Amino acid sequence: MCGIVATIGSREVVPLLLKSLQRLEYRGYDSAGLATVMPGQLHCRKAEGKLVHLREKLEKSPVAGCCGIGHTRWATHGKPDVRNAHPQLDEADQVAVVQNGIIENHRLLRQGLEQQGVRFRSDTDTEVIPHLVAQALADLRGTAPPTDLLRQAVARAVEQLEGAYALAVVWQGQPGELVAVRYNAPLLIGLGEGQFFCASDTPALAGFASTIVSLEDGEMARLTPLGVELFDGSGQRIQRTPQPLRGDDYTANKRHFRHFMLKEIHEQADVAAAWVERCLAAPADESLATVLRNVQRVQLLACGTSRHAALVGAHLLEQLAGVPSSVHYASEFRYAPPPLMPQTLTIGVTQSGETADTLAALTIEMERRHALEPNVPPLMLGITNRADSSLGRLVPHVLDLKAGVEVGVAATKTFLGQMLAFYGIALLLASQRHGASAQVKACRQALEQLPEQLSRTLHAMDQCCAELAHGFAETRDVIYLGRGINYPIALEGALKLKEISYIHAEGYPAGEMKHGPIALLDQHVPVVSIATPGPVFEKVLSNAQEAKARDARLIGIGPVCGDTEIFDVLLPIPPVHELVSPLLTIVPMQLLAYHVAAHRGLDVDQPRNLAKSVTVE
Ligand code: G6P
Question: Structure pTM?
Answer without folding.
Answer: 0.86
